[in-house]
Write a structure and sequence with these properties.
The complex is a heterodimer.
Chain A (H helix, E strand, L loop, with lengths): L1 H39 L2 H31 L4 H30 L6 H28 L6 H27 L5 H35 L2
Helix pairs in contact in A: 1-2, 1-3, 1-4, 2-3, 3-6, 4-5, 4-6, 5-6
Chain B lengths: L1 H31 L5 H19 L1 H10 L6 H18 L6 H16 L6 H39 L4 H32 L11 H19 L1 H6 L9 H21 L5 H16 L6 H31 L5
Helix pairs in contact in B: 1-2, 1-4, 1-7, 1-8, 1-10, 2-7, 2-8, 3-7, 4-5, 4-12, 5-12, 6-10, 6-11, 7-8, 7-10, 10-11
Classes of the chains: A mainly alpha, B mainly alpha.
Chain lengths: ~220, ~325
């Protein structure tokens, strides 16, 4: 009887754990790809990193689709089903943005002047911290959900930190002596990288709403 | 013998309508949110109602029996008037209480036939007690729901569990509390179906009569309860899983308490009280004022209509005969 009622819940939990693992792997690949690019600008290595990230993103999509199917067959409250689906979608958006940033470098043949290398590295590291904190918040939501609120708050703070780095770097780019077209390309890359943190903040906001709705 | 068949038929139809109307108050949110299937909810409710009627339904049945002093076809007129009142109120789309319509009809017949001097005190004592309990029903249910809201809410807020486990606890609670509320409903409301017939069937054990009445309520849930169960919650305010849980808790405890006291009360009004209690916590602006007005209108007019119908019915059909 227990299995009949709650079997789907275990399945949902297991799929969410799998999704979080793919999320972690995808963002690790993104950071590794960025480091490879910033350190030695190896195009072949970058192509391999983009491909690996795309595979990971597709696998995350498959799990997302399974979560959706299992959720609708489960006996969870409709509101919880909707909340979890939207949350997984917003986490997937973070993965998608990381792929977009890495792809941009590859497809648009971007080269970063030596003087900005450290700043880009700093920006990537800040977005990584933000997405890592988001993963912790998600994991706590499906473990001891009250504890996720500390991490949700931290995601918000880290996103603000990313914003500061973004604006400082854009200013630095436009105050340099390089071509305007290149400046604009570099600015777009900065925007794409910091968009990852924006998506992370969106997902954290969604989690915050989930917690508020359940606060009695 | 035709009387027996007719009264059994009308009694059963009252039980069916009680089941059809009140099934939603027991498992509405659990079924509407697909926590359990309608069939399983109806099965659980049916078993619990019959158990409640068998084990603890006697006191409320005795009260109705003591109030019903109508000989011959009197019980038939009481139950028929009650049924017609329920139909009228349903057609007018006003909420209806079977307990109130039945007691209104009992009083209609009682007053129409004239109360024996020695019985006045007993009947009016029961009546006053009932009116008092009808007023207390939504208040008590509301208070219990509010207390449960804070206590169970605080417990859930501090349980170190996942979001899905929290969801699971509420869903399990809805099933457990729904089953308890069905038991309490059997304790309290079976009297409405069989109470007036106890004296008419002296050879049948009242407990067996209670089981028969409860079975008709259970059948009513099975046959006609689906629609209301699946749509319940779209009423006064929107009920989520947790609020539905505490509202049903308030309803169950109130029904059980008054059932043990021997007073049949309205399950719907207990639910309304619980919902209003939660609305007081969450913000009264969420309440549908028009619906609330309808509920109070139904509350006042139900016993009045059945009183008039029963009094008129008794006077027209039996009052002129010397041997009723």
């Amino acid at each position: 009887m227990g299995k009949l009622f709650w079997g789907k819940q275990k399945e949902v939990e297991s799929l969410i754990v799998q999704f979080c693992q793919k999320y972690k792997s995808a963002l690790d690949l993104y950071v590794t790809g960025m480091k490879h690019f910033l350190e030695n600008n190896d195009r072949a290595q970058l192509a391999a990193d983009v491909k690996a990230l795309h595979v990971m993103e597709s696998q995350a999509d498959d799990i997302q689709s399974q979560i959706s199917k299992v959720l609708y067959a489960s006996s969870l409250f409709p509101e919880s089903r909707g909340d979890i689906l939207k949350l997984v979608e917003s986490l997937d958006a973070v993965i998608n943005k990381s792929e977009t940033a890495l792809r941009m470098i590859y497809h648009q043949y971007i080269e970063i002047p030596e003087t900005f290398n450290a700043d880009y590295g700093y920006l990537v590291e800040a977005t990584r911290e933000c997405t890592r904190t988001l993963r912790k918040a998600t994991e706590f939501l499906f473990d001891k959900y009250q504890r996720s609120s500390d991490y949700i708050l931290k995601v918000d703070q880290l996103e603000s930190k990313v914003d500061v780095i973004e604006f400082t770097l854009i200013e630095k780019i436009f105050s340099s002596e390089i071509d305007l077209s290149r400046k604009m390309l570099l600015r777009d890359l900065v925007a794409n990288i910091s968009n990852i943190a924006d998506r992370a903040e969106d997902a954290a906001g969604r989690m915050q709403i989930m917690l508020i709705k359940r606060k009695l | 013998m035709p009387f027996s068949f007719l009264s059994a038929g009308i009694g059963a139809s009252l039980g069916l309508s009680l089941g059809a109307n009140d099934g939603g108050n027991l498992f509405g949110t659990a079924v509407a949110t697909r926590v359990i299937s309608f069939r399983f909810a109806a099965l659980l409710a049916g078993i619990a109602i019959i158990a409640g009627a068998y084990f603890q339904g006697g006191d409320a049945i005795e009260t109705i029996q003591q109030m019903t002093k109508a000989p011959g076809n009197g019980p038939l007129i009481i139950v028929s008037s009650s049924c017609i009142t329920i139909i009228i109120m349903t057609l007018l789309q006003l909420p209806v209480s079977t307990s109130q319509s039945l007691v209104g009809a009992i009083m209609g017949v009682t007053i129409s036939m004239g109360i024996a001097p020695g019985e006045t005190e007993i009947i009016f004592d029961h009546l006053l007690k009932m009116i008092f309990c009808w007023i207390l029903t939504p208040i008590g249910s509301g208070i219990i729901a509010m207390v449960c809201y804070y206590c169970v809410g605080a417990m859930l807020n501090n349980l170190p569990v996942s979001l899905l486990t929290r969801d699971k606890l509420i869903r399990s609670g809805l099933i457990a509390v729904g089953t308890y509320s069905a038991y309490a409903f059997g304790v309290n409301n079976t009297a409405n179906v069989v109470g007036v017939f106890v004296d008419s069937y002296p050879n049948i054990n009242p407990r067996l009569l209670a089981v028969l009445g409860a079975s008709s309520i259970a059948l009513g849930i099975f046959l006609f309860g689906r629609g209301l169960m699946e749509t319940i919650g779209a009423g006064l305010i929107r009920l989520d899983g947790f609020t539905a849980l505490v509202v049903v808790m308030g309803e169950a405890v109130t029904l059980h308490f008054f059932g043990v006291m021997g007073i049949p009360v309205s399950a719907s009004q207990a639910v309304v009280g619980g919902v209003l209690g939660i609305a007081l916590i969450r913000g009264p602006e969420a309440i549908d004022g028009k619906l609330l007005k309808n509920i109070f209108t139904g509350w006042l007019t139900t016993p009045l209509i059945s009183f008039i119908l029963a009094a008129a019915g008794y006077s027209l059909l039996i009052g002129n005969n010397t041997t009723p």
